[in-house]
Design goal:
This protein is an alpha/beta fold. The protein has two domains: 132 residues, N6 adenine-specific DNA methyltransferase, N-terminal domain (Ferritin, Up-down Bundle), CATH 1.20.1260; 278 residues, 3-Layer(aba) Sandwich (Rossmann fold), CATH 3.40.50.150. Helix content is 45%, strand content 11%. It is built from 17 helices and nine strands. Strands 3-2-1-4-5-7-6-8-9 form a nine-stranded mixed beta sheet. Strand 4, helix 12 and strand 5 form a beta-alpha-beta unit. Helix 1 runs antiparallel to helix 6 and helix 12 runs parallel beside helix 14. The radius of gyration is 28 Å and the shape is globular. 34% of the residues are buried.
Length: 493
């Protein structure tokens, strides 16, 4: 298997011939659960070798090896009948026993659907997937490319406000928050698992023994509201060596009352890109204290993160500009954040990081719970040399964050980054200045030669002068047009 992009494209081309799959989102959802079953079957083959007492939670006839692996097996109406009447219904109601795997499968398939109506075309799709062996390191690594291709297609098929965090951003946040083996890592809006898999890779580099690797299996948690990203997250985690990713649940994190979260459930590290620009369903805000009630999703997630982070715990997250300069409820949330946490760093990303899926400008916030903020360091991330924006073919890259990493440093015992230096990109603002601005965190780079549009009282005379020039020009054009029309009329007599 050499060209992964072609493999995914060939599967999608087959699906396009089917009358039941009339959109990219449906085709991707169909591919997602089919890939899940193939990956799970390959994972089971590995477990059967490494664990003498391994017993599959699936009845034999539901396993991929039984109904899908034989290319000359079921097809046409027989295959459709099996999937629609046996496979999916049985997986949806799978009995949850002592093992966590059956619960994981049941949760994964709770909202799964078969959209294809042509069983012969479905067999062709299954045969394509059969060409991958996820127990070989080459094919497992190659599926990373398939996964990225599916994500890009999913981004294109997604609704407004639905997008996925660039890999460079997740990697930079995880590296700077620096989770340590034994700590509990959480993503309350985990999507397809980008932050979690990045954290797992970061922790795996620290694992030196079999005991460390066993610890790695259960040191993370996540929650995802939507079915399709959740299925992709499960697949992603299994490909990253997690045997049973049952601690990633399909649910709405915000639907749980804030007071229900108890200290035993709190986390050492939270890394996330909460959804923003959208509104939560009616009643969700009632799960939060009255002074923080809003339907803006990003604001609610910020309140939640402050609650479930352990004292001394660290967080790194993506937030839109609106949270930084917003007033009202947003001001009260920021006041709480700065009084209960040390918001030590804000990295201001340029426009276009999430292009073409959203043009909202974003920021990376890093804070530690337990000490109030004394000062905030800002770092303005520039475009690469010669670039004016990012796009699908030229996304933001992890190499661009090297200057931030070199500048970052380590905090002193008071949590201050006292050895940091101001540069053309970096500057420091005291908590007194922040309070004087009524907790407006939308601060521009004072070293930038572009000083902005200027003060209103200075701009007003220029604006009035410009209006006079426009009126004068309009009058001249009307006069010239009148003369031209008059001359035309005289000529035609």
């Amino acid at each position: 298997m050499t060209n992964i992009s072609n493999l995914v494209k060939s599967i999608q081309d087959i699906m396009r011939k089917d009358a039941g799959t009339y959109g990219d989102a449906q085709r991707i959802e169909q591919m997602a659960w089919l890939f899940f079953l193939k990956i799970f079957d390959d994972r089971e083959k590995e477990l059967e070798v490494t664990k003498d007492d391994y017993k599959s939670p699936l009845t034999d006839y539901l396993r991929w090896r039984d109904w899908a692996a034989n290319e000359e097996g079921m097809t046409g109406e027989g295959l459709l009948a099996f999937i629609n009447n046996s496979l999916l219904p049985e997986l949806k109601k799978l009995t949850v026993g002592q093992d966590k795997i059956s619960g994981l499968i049941r949760m994964t398939f709770a909202d799964a659907n078969n959209y294809m109506k042509n069983g012969t075309l479905l067999r062709k799709v299954v045969n394509k997937i059969n060409g991958i062996d996820f127990n070989t390191s080459e094919d497992r690594h190659t599926f990373g490319d398939i996964y990225e291709k599916i994500l890009k297609d999913l981004q294109s098929a997604g609704n407004a406000g639905e997008f996925y965090t660039p890999r460079a951003v997740t990697q930079f946040i995880v590296e700077q928050v620096d989770p340590r083996l034994g700590e509990k890592v959480f993503d309350p809006a985990c999507g397809t698992g980008g932050f979690l898999t990045c954290a797992i890779d970061h922790l795996r580099d620290q694992a030196k023994t079999e005991k460390d690797l066993a610890l790695l299996q259960g040191c993370f948690s996540g929650i995802e509201k939507k079915h399709l990203p959740h299925v992709l997250c499960m697949t992603n985690l299994m490909l990253h060596g997690i045997d049973v990713p049952s601690n990633v649940r399909h649910n709405n994190t915000l639907s749980r009352p804030l007071t229900d979260w108890k200290p035993r459930e709190y986390f050492d590290v939270i890394v996330t890109n909460p959804p923003f620009g959208g509104m939560e369903e009616d009643g969700i805000e009632a799960n939060f204290p009255r002074e923080f009630r809003t339907r803006e999703t990003a604001d609610l997630f910020l309140v939640l993160i402050m609650r479930v982070l352990k004292p001394g715990g660290r967080a790194g997250l993506v937030l839109p500009d609106g949270t930084l300069f917003g007033e009202g409820v947003k001001t009260r949330i920021k006041e709480k954040l700065l009084s209960e946490c040390n918001l030590h760093t804000i990295v201001r990303l340029p426009n276009g990081v999430f292009n073409p899926y959203t043009g909202i400008k974003t920021n990376l916030l890093f804070f530690t719970k337990g000490q109030p903020t004394q000062e905030i360091w800002y770092y303005e991330h520039p475009y690469p040399k010669g670039a004016k924006s990012y796009n699908k073919s030229k996304p933001i890259r992890i190499e661009e964050f090297k200057p931030e990493k070199n500048w970052w440093g380590k905090p002193d015992k008071n949590g201050r980054y006292s050895k940091r230096k101001e540069t053309d990109q970096a500057w420091c603002v005291s908590i007194e200045d922040i309070k004087a601005r009524n907790y407006n965190l939308d601060l521009k780079n004072p070293h930038n030669t572009d000083i902005g549009p200027g003060k209103v009282e200075d701009l007003l005379p220029e604006y009035e002068k410009l209006l006079e020039q426009i009126a004068e020009t309009r009058g001249e054009l009307k006069q010239e047009l009148h003369l031209a029309l008059t001359a035309t009329a005289e000529t035609s007599k």
